[in-house]
Amino acid sequence: MLRRTGHLLFKNNYSHHRHIRVVTMSECMNFTEGEFYQEHFDSRAYAKNFYSCSRGHSDEKDFLTFVLRCLSRVFSTGEHRGQRLIDVGSGPSIHSVLSACEYYDEIVLSDFADNNRRELEKWLKNQEDCLDWKPILQRVCELEGKSPSDLEASLKHRVKNVLKCDVRLENPFYPHTLEPADCVITSLCLEAACKDIQTYRRALHGLTKLLRPDGLLVMVGALGETFYKVDERPFSCLKLNQYDVEEALRGLGFSIHEFNILPGDDQRNKSVSDFEAVFHLVARKPSD
Question: Mind listing the pLDDT tens digit for each residue in 160-203?
Fold first, then answer.
C-alpha cells in the first residue's frame, strides 16, 4: 500500500532532462506492434496477472494502487465532466474509466486486439465467463465511498461503443470518425504501441484530434520500460523519460496541469517488467 501520509504522489522527481539513449536488447529485437498483439496477446492471462487484486502484480509494487488513486483524485470530485469520454487502448480492462464514468454521458472503450474487445463486450453483457473486475471495483469504491454494484451499473449504462483503434493512424478509429470528446484517457497504451519516439509523437497528435478545444487528456504510462511479460511472453515498450512526454505534449500546445510520478523499487524482481517509474498526467488541449 502507499504510505497514507500524502499518498506519495511524487511530482516531478524523475529526471526530465534529455539524455543519451542506450540501445537495449529489447530495442534490438523486433518491436511487438499491434499485429503481434492480435496474434499473441492473452487477454485473460493479462487480467489475471495484473488486475486480479487491487494492488496489481506482486512484482510491480504499488503500481496499480498509484494509478487508481490518481484517477480517483482527478475525477471523483466531479470537477471534470461532459458529454463524451474516449478511452484509447483499454485492453480488456475497465479500470481507467471507473472513477470518471459517472461524470460523462457517453463512454467509448477501444483496443486494437480483437480478444481484448471481446472480453470488454462479454463483461458489458454480463456473460457467464466474463472477466471478474470486482476487486478493482471494490477498491475504487473504497476510495470514493460508492457502491460497487451501483458503479458497475453506471459504467455499463454509459458505455456506448467498444471500437477497434490503432494509435499509429492519423485517425485512430478509422474508418469511423468520432465526435470530439470532452475527455480522452489512455493508460499503458502508447509506449506499448509505438516503436520509436517519432511514432509516439504522431500517436499523441492523433489523440489531440479526438478532443474538443479545451478538452482534458489524462494519461498513465511507464518511464524507462523496455518490456513487460504476460505469463512468460514478452511485449516491447518504448523507453521514455519525463522529458520525452512533456516535450511531445507541449509541442502540440497542451498545458500540463499535473505530472505525478511513482518511482519503481530498485530492489524489486524485474522478471515481469523493467519500468523505472510510473507516471500519471493531466493536460488540457488549447482553446481555439
Answer: 999 999 999 999 999 999 999 999 999 999 999 999 999 999 99
The residues with which 88 forms a beta bridge, in sequence order, are 186
The cell 471478474 sits on which residue?
Answer: 132
136 three-class SS: helix
Distance from C-alpha of 93 to C-alpha of 112, rounded to nearest angstrom? 13
d(CA 263, CA 275): 9
Residues in Cβ contact with 267 at an 8 Å cutoff, skipping those fewer than 6 apart: none
Which pTM value belongs to this model?
A: 0.88
Q: For 222, list phi and psi in degrees, rounded to 5.
A: -115, 145
Q: 47-60 burial by CB neighbour count: b if 16+ within 10 A, else e?
A: bebbbeebbbbeeb
pLDDT, tens digit (0-9, with 9 covering 90-100), for 211-265:
999 999 999 999 999 999 999 899 999 999 999 999 999 999 999 999 999 998 7
Question: What are the distances in angstroms from CA 2 to CA 71, 100, 133, 276, 280?
Answer: 15, 22, 21, 17, 15
